[in-house]
Write a structure and sequence with these properties.
Blueprint lengths: L2 H11 L3 H4 L11 H7 L18 E3 L11 H11 L4 E4 L4 E4 L3 E13 L2 E4 L3 H7 L1 E3 L4 E3 L1 E11 L3 E3 L3 H7 L13 E3 L1 E12 L2 E3 L6 E17 L15 E17 L3 E5 L3 E12 L3 E7 L6 E15 L5 E6 L6 E17 L3 E7 L4 H6 L3 E16 L6 E6 L8 E12 L6 E5 L15 H8 L14
Parallel strand pairs: 1-2, 2-4, 3-5, 4-8, 5-9, 7-10, 8-11, 9-12, 11-13, 12-13, 13-14, 14-15, 14-16, 15-17, 16-18, 17-19, 18-20, 19-21, 20-22, 21-23, 22-24, 23-25
Antiparallel strand pairs: 6-7
The structure holds 2-acetamido-2-deoxy-beta-D-glucopyranose (11 copies).
Length: about 475
Amino acid sequence: MRCSTLFVALSAAAGVLATAFGELPAGVPRNVHEFRLKHPYKSNGGGSDHADGQRPIVKIRPSRNATDGVADEFLKGLHKANHGGTLYLPKGELYIIDKPLDLTFLDDVQVHWDGEVKFTDDTPFWQANAFAHPFQNSLMFWKWGGKDIKLYGEGILNGNGQRWWNEFAGLEILDPDNEYLRPILFYAENATNLEMEGIHEKDSPCWTNFIVTSKGVSFTNVIVTAESNNASSLPKNTDFFDSLNVEDVTVERVWVNIGDDCFSPKSNATNIHVDTMYCNGTHGQSMGSVGQYAGEKSFIQDVVIENVWLLNGQHGARIKTWAGPDVGYGFVDNITFRNFWQAANEYAAFLDSCYFNIDASTCEQYPSQMNITNILFENFTGYTSGKYGTAVARLTCSANPDAVCDNITFKNFNITSPCGEAVIICDDIRGGIGVDCVPSNSTEATAALAATCTVPQATIAPPF
Ligand SMILES: *[C@@H]1O[C@H](CO)[C@@H](O)[C@H](O)[C@H]1NC(C)=O
Ligand SMILES: *[C@@H]1O[C@H](CO)[C@@H](O)[C@H](O)[C@H]1NC(C)=O
Ligand SMILES: *[C@@H]1O[C@H](CO)[C@@H](O)[C@H](O)[C@H]1NC(C)=O
Ligand SMILES: *[C@@H]1O[C@H](CO)[C@@H](O)[C@H](O)[C@H]1NC(C)=O
Ligand SMILES: *[C@@H]1O[C@H](CO)[C@@H](O)[C@H](O)[C@H]1NC(C)=O
Ligand SMILES: *[C@@H]1O[C@H](CO)[C@@H](O)[C@H](O)[C@H]1NC(C)=O
Ligand SMILES: *[C@@H]1O[C@H](CO)[C@@H](O)[C@H](O)[C@H]1NC(C)=O
Ligand SMILES: *[C@@H]1O[C@H](CO)[C@@H](O)[C@H](O)[C@H]1NC(C)=O
Ligand SMILES: *[C@@H]1O[C@H](CO)[C@@H](O)[C@H](O)[C@H]1NC(C)=O
Ligand SMILES: *[C@@H]1O[C@H](CO)[C@@H](O)[C@H](O)[C@H]1NC(C)=O
Ligand SMILES: *[C@@H]1O[C@H](CO)[C@@H](O)[C@H](O)[C@H]1NC(C)=O
């Protein structure tokens, strides 16, 4: 059955829900093609195809076939283009990267990226030879760093993740007996003024971008997808964005169809602005997780995330802080989630102070040591999936008297549940949240969580 026919059938079965649920508001792109039409990528070059026509252009030999690695040429090209030039990867050409590259020497360089850069999928080779970062067992194919780096074009950065997903199937990266590291498609460290524009980041084995100790980072008109051809090994942990220690990050107009967080800065992030993201099948717009490592301070502050469409995923706006016997401390402060449209996500807003998978009694015994202050959830519309019944949002703050949860506010929050009248659950928040909410141990919360139902997936494919 064609998607549209299936959807009509399901909508009809859902009866009265058919008009309220399952349709995107007008003008929202439903696939990569519509995204490009709505947010066309254009290089801003004066009279040239290149962003700055005055820069010397460097070209390198493309790969002749899928095993013909050109990592050495890529490195040489960047050395040559460094200090004022542009490495040009023309459309239709393929560049296979078959060994790790240290690209931390960059200083005023651009890559005009219309072709495809693709990593080999020799998993044993990368496991043995790639760079590593201790944070959550990360592994990096390459490292970008330096200053004034601009990567732009309509090309592809391909992580060739299928073999990794097949081999990871059933494993958790953080399991102590899992020998796989967490391969990252794009890693930057110690970068100042790093821009990525237009590029399609495709099929990352794990996290798509990981940015460490950097300042002035932007992603604009970027497309991020991770799609498996194997139903028993779906992409996992393929977050669009993770970071440690970053300042001044901008994300504007990004399409994300992957299998984990849509956007999730981790420890030490300041001044973050996200405007216009489309996230299908993700775990949401997440602050953190933070506070994971014993004795370590971490924080996230001064964040605005606005104009976001989230469909068919886990949660919508989310804050996650670790609890347990050996965790860190710190704060999450001054975060605004504004103008969120959601369809068929589990909780539209979720503050989880019992991360990661800590059961209620352990969380009570070892509550999170993170303060959470000045958080605004404003102008939320749409509906949940019904997985948590009529509960549409859940805010669980730490029960630790030294970890305050203060000034957390819902304003113009209009998320409905397909199962009945919406309920918001909240625990341990000082002064309320500006709208009615019930504690998780109340009879109202128990009844809300029990009233589960289902809705059809929100369609994002165009009518065929
Ligand atoms: C791929 O290209 C390389 C370099 O030209 C060549 O040595 C190799 O034989 C080619 N492999 C295949 C399978 O065509
Ligand atoms: C970070 O980059 C700056 C210049 O951009 C350099 O001076 C410094 O040594 C780098 N630090 C590390 C740890 O690589
Ligand atoms: C699909 O993934 C499963 C689980 O890892 C694996 O056993 C199987 O070989 C994969 N199928 C193909 C065609 O690669
Ligand atoms: C959107 O995400 C859902 C859930 O992961 C997935 O089943 C569906 O195929 C995605 N839609 C598209 C068009 O990729
Ligand atoms: C975060 O900042 C604190 C100091 O405020 C520092 O102690 C900690 O090491 C930093 N964490 C990371 C991951 O950089
Ligand atoms: C809160 O964060 C926003 C966005 O970064 C910033 O403009 C504002 O000054 C911050 N507010 C305070 C009180 O620091
Ligand atoms: C958490 O808040 C309390 C009360 O305001 C304050 O004493 C403490 O220093 C804060 N902790 C951090 C890590 O900011
Ligand atoms: C509460 O937080 C909001 C930002 O979310 C801020 O604008 C407001 O000033 C804060 N109120 C108080 C009393 O601190
Ligand atoms: C709230 O959303 C509506 C409809 O999407 C929009 O017109 C309005 O400007 C938004 N309000 C704010 C404060 O952004
Ligand atoms: C809430 O949203 C529903 C549709 O999702 C709409 O019918 C209703 O008017 C909205 N309520 C408010 C107060 O905006
Ligand atoms: C719910 O838990 C709070 C403590 O968090 C307790 O004071 C209250 O009595 C409990 N209510 C019920 C109905 O168990």
